[in-house]
Amino acid sequence: MRFLPTRLPGVTVIEPDVHHDARGFFLETYHARTYQEGGITATFVQDNHSQSSYGTLRGLHAQIQHPQGKLIRALEGEIFDVAVDIRRGSATFAQWISVVLSAKNFRQLYIPPGFAHGFAVLSERAQIIYKCTDFYDPTDEIGLAWNDPDIGIEWPVKTPLLSAKDLAAPFLRDIEASLPIFQPEPGTD
Questions:
Q1: CB-CB contact of 139 with 66 (8 Å)
Q2: Which of 1, 79, 116, 131 could be stapled to 60 by a disulfide with Cβ–Cβ 3.0 to 4.6 Å?
Q3: How many CB atoms are located within 10 Å of the residue 41 CB?
């Protein structure tokens, strides 16, 4: 298993070892000790599963008082998965990364607390599951506009299918004062 850092600190791509033979394949999708050794020490408390059709864009979502870290993977189809740093004062504030996750590449993306998450469906249909480090709290959730020019995500879907909530999401600059403040790890500057 490989743990690949991204340019956003803590956001990690995981490439599991997949064992193929004439019967099909086998892989470990999560093993606490292996993930801890790979730098992901989070405790997960909730699993979510969603299915979406081509062109659907979900996000960008986060929680403020009870931020969720997420470990995402695709069970079916392919998604363009995105993490955005929303920690005020962070050197990478408002920067984003994207990773294609698919049922064929078996990749996972770990997004730590303090980041917004969203994805666009690239295949006819996609099913994703994701583990969360805190419970979902609808009263604590915020959304950010998927097409916020201050973030500048280069989505591969130009006219996405959005929920009413995501259509009404504000720009980062309009809610910046309510976002979490970056807290450096102890012993770092």
A1: no
A2: 116
A3: 11
pLDDT by residue for the chain (189 residues), tens only, comes to 999 999 999 999 999 999 999 999 999 999 999 999 999 999 999 999 999 999 999 999 999 999 999 999 999 999 999 999 999 999 999 999 999 999 999 999 999 999 999 999 999 999 999 999 999 999 999 999 999 999 999 999 999 999 999 999 999 999 999 998 888 766 544
Count of CB atoms within 10 A of residue 104's CB? 11
- The label of the residue with tokens 């009870």 reads 66
Assess whether 54 carries a catalytic annotation. no
Would you state the structure tokens that stand for residue 59, as one six-digit string? 């996000």
Q: Which of 35, 110, 117, 130 is catalytic?
A: 130
Single-letter code of the amino acid located at 146: W
- Catalytic residue (one of 19, 20, 61, 117): 61
Active site residue 130: yes
Alpha carbon distance 90, 22 (integer Å): 48
Asked if 122 and 100 count as a contact pair (C-beta separation under 8 A), the reply is yes
